[in-house]
Each structure stands twice: as C-alpha cells, then as structure tokens.
TrEMBL record:
GO BP annotation list: lipid catabolic process
Highest taxon above the source species: Eukaryota
Domain AB hydrolase-1 positions: 73-235
Native species: Musa troglodytarum
UniProt protein name: Lipase
Upper classification of the organism: Eukaryota, Viridiplantae, Streptophyta, Embryophyta, Tracheophyta
InterPro entries: AB_hydrolase_1, AB_hydrolase_fold, Lipase_euk
SUPFAM superfamilies referenced in this protein's UniProt entry, alphabetically: alpha/beta-Hydrolases
Amino acid sequence: MGFRCWLLVITFVLSMGFRCELAGAHGRWQLLQSLEAADDGVCTAVVSPQGYECQEYEDPTRKRRRHSGKRQPVLLQHGVLMDGLTWLLNPPQQSLAFVLADNGFDVWITHGRGTRWSRRHESLDTSDPAYWAWSWDELASFDLPATVGFVVRQTGQKLHYVGHSMGTLTALSAFSEGKLVDKIKSAALLTPVADLTYMTTPIGRAAASAFSGEMLGALGVAEFDPKGAVGTNFLESVCAMPGVNCYDLMASFTGPNCCLNDSTVDMYLKYELQPTSVRTLVHFSQSQSVAFRRGVITKYDHGSSAANMAAYGQSSPPEYHMSNIPHHLPLLLSYGGGDMLSDVKDVQLLLNDLSNHDADKLVAQLVKEYAHLDFVMG
C-alpha cells in the first residue's frame, strides 16, 4: 500500500561511562519542559541530557551507515496507546532502556505507526482514513519484521527482543508464522497478550462488549486519539456504563498497579496515551468476544465473507496458532497477579499452547503484586 515511514528507531549507547541523573523534582520538571518544546524527538528531549549517546533513524527500508560497536542489541517494543517514551519515563536507574545501556547493551526503541514521532507517510496525510487502514496484523506482518531486520543489518548481530502488551501480541503472532525467528536470540514478553477471554478490566470489557471500534468505524472515524474529542467522548460514554467506575482511571483500565510513583503517572498521562487506528481497537474487541471465540486468536475480521475472501482467500479470518512458535526459541513470559488486561487465566491459555515448547527454552514468571503498567513504569 505504499507505506514506508511508519517506524522511528532509536539507538542508545552509553557514552564513555558518563551519566547525568535527574535532579529530583526540579530535574523532572526540566525534562518535562524539554519534551514539551522538542521537535527533534526523544534523543534531544530525554536521552542526551542524561549523558547517553543517542541516534535516531527514520524509515528502516532505506540503506544506512552500519552501526559500529560490538554491544549486544536489544529491541524494546511498546504497547498500544503508547510510544517509545514509555521505556524512559522513570529516572535512569529505574528505566529499562537506561538500565540495559548501563549494563553494556546496545538498546533500540521503536515508535509505532501513528504515534507522535511516527506520523509521516510517502503519499497519505494522517487526516486520510486510508492512513489508518491497519490493525495489529500489519504490525506483526510488516512493521516488526522491518524493524528487526533493520537492527540486524545495522549491528550485524541477532537481537534480544523485549515487548510489552501489544508488543508481545505482535511478536507472538509473527513467531507463530515463522517470522523473525532466525534474527531473534530471545524474547522477553512482559504482560503477554494473546487470548483475551478472561480480561477483567471494567473499561476494557465495557468497550469490547459495546463493539466500540465497529461503532466508531461506522461513524467514519479511522483514527482513535484518546486525548481528542472522539477519545474523550468515547471514554465518557464507557465510564457512564453500569458497573464501570472511572474514579481511578488507570486502575479501572489496567488493574491496581502496585509500584508507580505519582510523577511518573503524571508524565504518562501527559505524554503517552498515543493515537492508534480504530481498526486495532476493532481487532481487540473481536478477540475479546467470548460469544464465538475462546482460546482462538485470528487475523482481523473484515466483517463479511466476501471481504475476508478478498483479503485472505477464505470466508473467515485465518487463525494464529501459537503452538506453531518454534520450540527452540528462548521465551520469557512475565505477568502480573493484579493485571486486568493480561489476566493470569489468559496467560495460562497461552502457556497451554506452548506446552510442547522445549522445557529449557521457556520461563514463566508470575509477579503477584504487579499489574499491567508496573512492568514498564514500576
């Protein structure tokens, strides 16, 4: 479809052992101010001021000078309604990207398509509905392979992958179709999302049961901006539904996160909650509909046999079979006992699909006190 500029990839390398940590509340305020004013991306606003070397890349399809150095590359992939900033919201000693850099890794971060720093296109404007004609299928089939391939070409090495939330779903979907496996050393999946049968978050269940994505699509809305008029009206309508209490919005959406500090939450609410496509929300609501799916993950359902036939050559969307993930691929599944999006029962369904995985290549870690955002912001 001509899309080439979806992704922005950032690499961090610890600069000569020098570091500069945030200086309490005043330092955090300065960070907020620089991010507010920055047009050049996360490197200028967040990373370089901490004393780290940082480079930004646009369009992984173009040839670039090979990245120098022998550090082991690690790719960090954020979840839905987030961007790469999610890995950098805490001070350096508490943010995974900085911690990995301090421990000798070459850290790469992506901004998914449609987010603040990844909104350009070679022919379409973001006001064009065609720009938003994608779901997480396209992220798994095109964006993630393009990004992983770019990092491998730049570094000359296989990489370790860390995904959070939708960053786990896209990776699992790609792995199940044999993609990326030859380029990945291991995958750490934080709050792994595959089946959503037992999702208990009140906002998520209310939104899915109302088929909010389909309703928005019927109104001609292609972009879902949670901070825009559509997102605000949507949230107000969901919060007005019986049984939904949005007094503590974050807990209502993610579960009771145990370990977030107030300043990080303030930064998250101000700078995250990034736009995504309505089609992605439709896809999630399809996955959560227990009426016709349980333990089954499929590609996007285009809504009719004819449309699915045109897209897939069959009347219903093909399934992703997680049991097809190569058994030798090292996987870590880390999930939280308080997570209401990636429920423990749903993770167990995924583990059942992986029951034939090589025993020494699969680790499942339950952190009882964690909820959905503790894994990246705790």
